[in-house]
Amino acid sequence: VGIMALLVLTLIRGDLLDQWQASIPADAPNRFLVNVHPDQVSSLQTFFQQHDEKVPNIYPMIRGRLIEINNQKVNSDSFQNRGGKQLLSRELNLSWAIKLSSHNKLISGEWWTNQNLTSPQFSIEKSVAENLKLNLGDRLKFQIADQTVEASITSIREVDWGSFRANFYVIASPEVLKEMPTTYMSPFYLPAEKVLLLNELVNTFPNITVIDVAVIMNHLRQIINRVTLAVEYVFLFTVLSGLMVLFAGIQST
User: Fold this and answer.
1) Which of 33, 61, 80, 135 is the most buried (most CB within 10 A)?
2) What string of DSSP letters covers 192-250?
3) Distance separating alpha carbons of residues 76 and 81, to the nearest angstrom
4) Contact (CB, 8 A) for 205 and 37
5) How would DSSP label each residue in 150-164?
6) What torsion, rounded to 10 degrees, do the Cα atoms 153, 155, 158, 159 define?
7) pLDDT in tens, 197-241
């Protein structure tokens, strides 16, 4: 059993991580920019154009806490399930959009059209609906800084969280959040040979935070390799101990 465990660990070391990375498109975003100020959006797009890089999509991001469901006040004590408690114990990242992203799939309801863009509507992610027991037509109220916004749920989405795109639990029709205090975020792909461009970007926009997913993945791989190596040593010690016990048993008989 010990030898089998050693062989299995040797064969699958990093295999799950490799398969997962292989399933992600080659040009999937490997960096994220957050804390982009509204007046920096056009300058950031110009920066990428000047360096012959594909201009990434930039998404509004608003922090808000859910405080009411159907005119009933809610908090983390309102739900027994862990997911519901987590969603209500912190602020959520909200966004607004005109069109539905390609990595989001509507599973219920309808996305807003040009004819009803001005009406207050929310589209929520499937796990939020399940954890908070929400349905189409339910009315949500969010606290954003010292203001509140309220709208009805008109669609439920299934989100591909492994796509490395910008995903949000709650997306509103444009008029709901356009006047709220907003920062912007942007996922983008940067080839390894152009990694030094990040230094220039940070120098040009010192307030913007760069999240380097590529570095995080490398660290994760190193951790997996070290943990696997430690477990392999344990199993090797187990095999050697078993052989010693077997040899002692044979000698004594």
Assistant:
1) 33
2) GGGTTHHHHHHHHSTTPEEEEHHHHHHHHHHHHHHHHHHHHHHHHHHHHHHHHHHHHHH
3) 10
4) no
5) EEEEEEEEEE-GGG-
6) -70
7) 999 999 999 999 999 887 887 787 788 778 777 877 887 888 888
Specify whether the CB–CB gap between 172 and 121 falls below 8 A.
yes
Q: How many CB atoms lie within 10 A of CB 135?
A: 11
Task: Find all residues with CB under 8 Å of 118, minimum gap 6, and list them.
Answer: 173, 175
CA dihedral 4, 7, 12, 14 (to 10 degrees): 130
Two tokens, residue 18: 């490799």
HEC profile of 6-72: HHHHHHHCCHHHHHHHHHCCCCCCCEEEEEECHHHHHHHHHHHHHCCCCCCCCEEEEEEEEEEECCE
pLDDT value, residue 64: 93
Name residue 98's amino acid.
I
Question: How far apart are alpha carbons 37 and 60 in whole angstroms?
Answer: 10
DSSP 8-state assignment for residue 167: -
